[in-house]
Structures
1.
Amino acid sequence: MTPLRHDWSRNEIEALFDLPFPELLHRAASVHRAHFDPAEVQVSTLLSVKTGGCPEDCAYCPQAQRYHTGVEATKLMSTEAVVEKARQAKAAGASRFCMGAAWRSPHDRDIPKVAAMIREVKALGLETCATLGMLSNTQAHALRDAGLDYYNHNLDTAPEFYGEIIHTREMQDRLDTLAHVRDAGMKTCSGGIVGMGESRSQRAGLLQALANLPAHPDSVPINRLVEVQGTPLGDAHTSTLLDPFEFVRTIAVARIMMPKSMVRLSAGRETMSDELQALCFAAGANSIFYGEKLLTTGNPDTERDMALFARLGLRPMQIENATDHAIDACSTTVHAGITAAA
Ligand code: SF4
């Protein structure tokens, strides 16, 4: 077993990125096998319970109200409607259900509404996950008391590149929210987005910031920028600069640094070839988003996913008491960028 570390230096991480590609994949695959069955992939889905109209300015996000992306702002769904979706997810084999809302942070008046959703989803026998933006300590405890198991909040990018992407909140705000989530006893889901024009060293910086948190996130979503017309990054066409092999390297280094975390392919998967996804699985990715929609961007349809699993000899990961078709309806991409919430 690889010991968990929280003291990674930038030089060490860059040295991993610089390894010959086969050597990097070998090391990552070895770490993967030490902690997981490499034939299993966790499958996640997500319900956007409140879409668009966000006051933040994340340069990749179609849900920011200041950008003209055609995303229509919606009100918070009713508890009944959310519970019906959760029932459907459970009937399809889900063991965990994630609710995402495009908020900078929930108002205190929103918390009882979300808490009611969490309680009712939990009563169905599902694990619960949410991504609602920044949380205060009090809000985190209230959500935990309602039965929330997981909370997603992404760091997005390296600290030194962060100011190029977001101006309406600080990296420290994100770290504070993750601390509140941990303090409340919930599990964390946190990752970032690559292909936004950052350097390799800055990609290393994102992974450094994640791995050197007091606890590794339980899930680490690695999003590849989805260029959405109307957003600053969508109009700048920066993602064309990211070499697919560089994306695989990022996955492999994340696996080596955070050996027990679920490394998740999230937004951007719909533009990846089957071959690229296969390389990501070989490099230690063991979780994907599954379904038609990833909040406001597309996702490969489920038939293509299952066909790819069959071709690669992979199977959906069983989650605790879940069935053969276990689907983890968890978020991860939402506010982390690209799609939905903060
Ligand atoms: S990523 Fe989240 S916080 Fe940023 S604009 Fe989109 S919904 Fe708002």
Note: The first helix runs from residue 10 to 17.
2.
Amino acid sequence: MKFNLQMFAVPFRRVSKTAKRQRRTHLKKDAPTVTTCKQCGAPIAPHRACTKCGYYKGKEVIKTKEEN
Ligand SMILES: [Zn+2]
């Protein structure tokens, strides 16, 4: 097992580019979770009202411009 725990601040020139890059391989931004609206099928963020039809949990909770 490789012991590379950084216990205190290390000047950046003391950490090689390779060590820095190897450490940062685990720092990734993951893709946002997308679900589909049960009302209209549009891709929406979970636990949020649909921006297309304004429905959440089978009820219309916000008025959208398209309906008016
Ligand atoms: Zn919808």
Note: The longest helix spans residues 17-23.
